[in-house]
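#struct-help
A.M.: can someone run this one for me? Single chain, 100 residues.
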Amino acid sequence: MIRHIVMWRIKDDCEGKDKRATALLIKEELESMIGKIDGLRSLEVGINVNTSPAAFDLVLITEHSTLSDLQFYQEHPAHLAVGAFVKNVTKERVVVDYGF
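D.P.: on it. Structure tokens below:
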């Protein structure tokens, strides 16, 4: 099993929306992938409640059976479309993938 974790910092002003509103839009977009991509075993999105300047704003956690399933997910058109949206409204991203 492979766990894929991504965290983002949201831009301060996204088309007049505050960070919370933008986080909710990102969450909705990410969750729209559920059931659309083979090999995506689970998907969870969390909006951070920690207000520390060191904290990221949003986290995505997905699980895949194999590295091939993760790669298929990353190359899937639904993921690419959501990724383009998220990239436009965020300023920083970190990623960790690990086996468990």
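A.M.: thanks! The beta strands are 2-10, 42-47, 58-64, 90-99.
D.P.: also worth noting: The longest strand covers residues 90-99.
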